[in-house]
Amino acid sequence: MSTDLDPFATLGLPAGPNLSDEQVHDAWRAIATATDPDRPDGGDPARYAAATAAYASLRTAQGRSQAYADRAAKRGAAPRRKMTQSERGNVIVCCVFSVWGLIFVVLEGLKLPAALRSASGQGIRGLWTAAYNTKYGWHGTFRLPDGKVLLRDVIYRDPIPAVHVGLRVQGLYSGGIDPYIYRLHGSQAWQTSVIIMIVGFVVFLSMQARLAVVLLRFRRRLHAGV
Description:
Blueprint: H1 7-10, H2 21-35, H3 45-58, H4 61-74, H5 85-119, E1 124-134, E2 137-143, E3 149-156, E4 168-173, E5 180-182, H6 189-224
Parallel strand pairs: 3-5
Antiparallel strand pairs: 1-2, 1-4, 2-3, 4-5
């Protein structure tokens, strides 16, 4: 229900969609008590009726939002309740990069324990034979000293100079969810994992900070009715 009068002004309330049910009810009750036609002095029927109509308009959150929009439209400046295209774009970018940052942190975190064990020479020793190369590194077969195949299609994570198909080098398998073969002594692969984790965490935090700024500006714009 709506009235030609400004329901916010009628109840003496600040214009805005964020008023609570209690604020609206208390404002109406104060006016209704003072203007009730059943009072001994006859009250103020006109003001009582206007306050009751205003309360009917503002008693729900949806009603307050609609009344606020109507009020702004009459003033020639309807408030934007939806994000602008630029704001939506910023939110999407922040979310996507935040997810990617977390993915890098988690993936490298899974590799780190095995890489740390290999740095101190802990693991199963054997012989790794190069089979083929991809953008992720050289893949090959890892055999135990007795010739038994322990792992197939496994990547040798540490750098190897002049690698070619069929090259055999000694290696160390240190376990882990995602198996890799490391050099026998002093592997530095853990440093790469730590660096990637730090970068991923920094990306995640920076994107979350940027997202917070975008949402804060949007909230302020809503409150300002722009």
